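Annex B. Sample input.
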Amino acid sequence: MGSLSTSSDTIYSRQVRVLLPLPLAGAYDYLADPAQNLEPGDLVRVPLGPRTLTGAVWDPEPGPGSGKIGAARLKPVGERLDVPPLPGNLRRLIDWVAAYTVAPPGAVLRMAMSTPEAFAPAKPVTVFGPGGAPPARLTAARRRVLAAAAQGGPRSARDLAAAAGVSPGVVAGLAKTGALRSHVVARDPGFARPDPETPRPPLSPEQQTAADGLAGKVAAQEFSANLLEGVAGAGKTEVYFEAIAEALRLGRDSLVLVPEIALTAQWLDRFEARFGVAPAEWHSDLTRRERRRVWRAVAEGRAPVVVGARSALFLPFANLGLIAVDEEHDASFKQEDGVHYNARDMAVVRAREAAVPIVLVSATPSLETVVNVRDGRFDHYRLRERHGSAELPATHVLDMRADALPADRWVSPVLAAALRETVAAGEQALLFLNRRGYAPLTLCRACGHRLECPNCQAWLVEHRHTGRLQCHHCGHAQICPPDCPSCGEADRFAACGPGVERIAEEAAAIVPEARLAIMASDTLSGPRAAADFVRRVVAHEVDVLIGTQILAKGHHFPLLTLVGVVDADLGLGGGDLRAAERTFQLLTQVAGRAGREERPGRVYLQTYMPEHAVMRALASGDAERFIASEADARKEFGLPPFGRLAALIVSGENERSVRATAQALGRATPRGSGIEALGPAPAPLALLRGRHRQRLLLKTPRSVNVQSVVREWIAQVSVPSGVRLQIDIDPYSFL
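Annex B, continued. Sample output.
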């Protein structure tokens, strides 16, 4: 990068605003040389105090320093970076997200500039493609490399090796023989363009109608919000693939957001089968080099389709044609750290700013989306039947109060018998429990002492496979002490309650001949491990799966015919206003894994509350009635989506300072028609990662501008150093 030093005869006669990726109030004013031809979105290097930072030239509105600092005192812009400018639709999104979430614009910009490696000039890269005749000694690994090299264009040794599942040394060896030809390129290779005309299986009439409607929205090249709703196994993915195909025909880019990148293994296989090549991926498991490649390719228009986690929303697409949000109801789209935002909702905003259609996809749409459809803001496409000959599974509710199981057993006799039948028939079963580890609590049988995390107000979870107790909030881990730290008794600790490891132990006793495997977020090391797990299940190398919510959605296992939910009531407590809705969505999704092809499926829900509305709805299949009753209850109490909520979370290492700040906020709570303020009160997790926490909650009618109310509220209170105040508009978590 060039120096910020300037010659004495340079004339800085133009004033520009530069937004920096810092939690500052807004853009700052700088002087620019007219010869730089700076435009909004350009990335530049500027001084800020003793530092030199990279920022973005922002749209020409008065900055916080305008009118206060004379032009003679403004500092000059340094160099303009050789990077495509941040597009206007992304800049408008950043401003909108900042205003909506009551966050500093620079903190939002930081999410769009999260890959500083992409701002530096590209280093030359050696890429490999098909060469001469294959060598005489052709191993299986070499065959895979040559097959991979024949598809998708030239790639680096690392990328080609990863595609073939070999080491880079195999690629280098083939290059020496001449079977691969290498050449140096000046920039990172882009991504091969998917072919929208690749032959595909025929769609059902229901699918074709929805696909034609969505493709027509893409062809119109204007904003529209659309819900694609369909039962599990209805072929929703294949439908919105046709919208992507239309965007490709128009030369436009597509962004697909997914809640968990570990869910994409089969999605990627389907995409490649439909379009001939893989899309670009964006998620936290990418290396810095991979992130640089994707970011630059998006900015330069060389990544036609990107699939990614919520942060992909802030990639610099300049030629968007479509946004799709798969599993739009999933709570993983809500970011709970830093800037609190819901990627689903902000994706709708970006689609509007880019004037392109957005497709929200779900078998169990969120109540917010259902209300938007009902009120005419979203268009609705619906798939009511499973694709092909598959039928929805039969659902049975098991009243666990009647079974009186022993204290160390959690699988009912009915579910155990179904498990034996399924394995004996050569089919696969899934036992679902949304709780990682072996046991959620370890206590002393002598005095009742519970082993807790020293950094969080949370119990330590036993993970027997690793021989450690772990906190699932901060990551603290330790071995179980031999003596109780409270009473000193030795060998008196007992594991209480089940996690997936304990259910696997019980399943092994029920079907000792079965091949078992656990799938949870802490048993998989990343997307590749998830893909390998899925491959093993599809190849029938596993008879019984035991898993958490990571197995609940997105997977298609042809031989899986039995789903048993060990604790269907698990998500119904805790005072969360969305508890019933979330539980209904999760259990519907996991039930949808059963019977997705010719063999019929069965679902067993073990519950101590069979009379609960969620269990009745799942047993009857009457989702519409459940959603209607949930909407009526929320509307009666003015809760989202019929009212507004905003949470204030006060945290710090000094408990007294945190309490004093929260009390000051409590004394300054807003007043007005329909406005209610609750708190301050200790958060349910009053200690988290070593920080004490207090919460306040604001409830208003939808007609109230809750952001303005929050801004006026916090402006009345001085927050001391060492205390953090976080604002969460539309909170999803109440911990």
